[in-house]
Amino acid sequence: MSHTVSTKVARYPWLQEATEAVENRVDGFGDLVSDAVLDRAAERAIYAVERGEVGEIASSPRVELYSYPVARAVVSTVDDHAVTRRYAWAEAATAFDRLKEDVNSSTSFGSVGEARLEFSDLVREFGFQARELSGSQTGGGAEAVSAAYEMPVERYLEYASGITGEEWKLVNREMTEGRVKVGRADVLELAREAILRRVSEGLPLDLPPEVVEQVEPAVDDLRDAVAHADLSSEIDRVEESEFPPCMKALLSDVRNGEHLDHHSRFAITAFLTNIGMSTDEIVETYEVNPGFGEEMTRYQTDHIQGKTSPTEYSCPSCATMVTYGDCRNRDELCDEINHPLQYYRRRLDELDDEEGEEDDGGAEDGEGGSGDGGADEDDDDAGETDDEVEDELDTGGGGDGD
Ligand code: SF4
Q1: b/e for 40-66, b at 16 or more Cβ within 10 A?
Q2: Given the CA of residue 249, which atom of ligand 1 is nearest to it?
Q3: How much distance in Å is there from the Cα of 97 to the middle of ligand 1?
Q4: Exposed / middle / buried, residue 13 (Cβ in 10 Å: 0-12, 13-18, 19+)
């Protein structure tokens, strides 16, 4: 029986090696579950729904490793197609970021090898059979980024068929004797697709009642997050004067050239995307800030819009904004809503009402009472669980288990 959990399997819990590490250490699902593991499992799933990634790894490799199968059980219990897809996508996206960091790092693997996944491990894990072309690089680390490889066409097609983009079509690839030429970045993209499929495999799981009972607290957390995350319905209008105060503050930071943390950047980009701004318009808005590279902005915007992910993401709820310190300059309306998009929708409705009155040119109120019907449909359920969500997300740091 193994005694310690390596950081590598904790960071990449979908590895075969990770599955074996779990199997070697526990006799049944119940052995996986603890408060710390449940917290981190909930966090994985909630972050996936809200942010398209699964968060930082827990300080305990064991908690981190166990949280993966537990998160799969949590997601399976919720059993919602959109949630399952978002979750799998987020696991793959997070793994992809870590992989890029690991395999493209100029740091010698020897010093921290236990935590990292090497390029050759990745190729082996998914049976890519990628062979480096001779003379394509002269050294390891950063120089290896430009290395060229070739892999059997059938292995290439197996995963490339799931990736959109002209460059993935076989006609646009160099091929010799049944082997397709790929770059290192291509192999990483193929790995992302392979990870997505591996994480998705078997989901939703068919779980016995005792397992469902064990994951119940995390399931409740996820259900609340899902209920608050899906608020991006059909706003297609940009009226900056009506933006919620938090978004005005973030936009002002962008324009003042300030650095924004990832969560702040995600929040403002998702908000602008949700209200109907195009990628080009967002890129243009960010142009004044040298810290916002066009490529990164396009990537993030496309991702939020669902072009490079299975679904469109909505900007974070007020509870999440509070957790990350992004809720700024609250006003009275903030007391009545629980999502920045809800705030914006209300303000637009008010603006429409005001404009409607002006158009009437002071004519007597018609008996129809036009304008406000349906505007507050979403508002009735606002607030009732706001504090609960806040509390739940506050526990999201997770990972302080043993
Ligand atoms: S309460 Fe919500 S809408 Fe208001 S500033 Fe905070 S995050 Fe923005």
Answers
A1: bbbbbbbbbbbbbbbbebbebbbbbbb
A2: 5
A3: 30
A4: buried
Collapsed DSSP state (helix, strand, coil) of residue 149: strand
- Ligand 1, atom 1, lies closest to the CA of 334
316: left (phi over 0), alpha (psi -120 to 50) or beta: beta
**Best CA proximity match to 9, nearest among 95, 106, 70, 97:** 95
How many angstroms separate the alpha carbon of residue 74 from the centre of ligand 1? 29
Which atom belonging to ligand 1 lies closest to the Cα atom of 326? 7
Got the DSSP string for 190-248? HHHHHHHHHHHTTPSP---HHHHHHTHHHHHHHHHHHHHH----S-----GGGS-HHHH
Q: Which of 330, 341, 347, 393 to mutate to test the pocket of ligand 1 (most atoms within 8 A of CB)?
A: 330
* C-alpha 245 – ligand 1 centre gap (Å): 7
User: To which H or E segment does residue 183 belong?
Assistant: strand 179-183
Q: Where are the domains of the chain?
A: 7-103+201-228, 109-198, 232-338+340-381
One digit per residue, the tens of pLDDT, for the chain of length 402 reads: 446 889 999 999 999 999 999 999 999 999 999 999 999 999 999 999 888 889 999 999 999 999 999 999 999 999 877 788 889 988 998 999 899 888 776 554 444 456 788 889 999 999 999 988 876 554 444 445 567 999 999 999 999 887 766 788 889 999 999 999 999 989 999 999 999 999 999 999 999 999 999 999 999 999 988 877 654 455 678 899 999 999 999 999 999 999 888 889 989 999 998 888 888 889 888 888 877 778 778 888 877 776 666 566 778 888 889 988 999 999 999 998 888 998 998 898 888 777 766 666 554 443 333 333 333 333 333 333 333 323 332 322 333 332
The residue assigned the tokens 């991006």 is: 232
Q: Which residues line ligand 1 (CB under 6 A)?
A: 244-246, 318, 321, 327, 330, 334, 340, 343
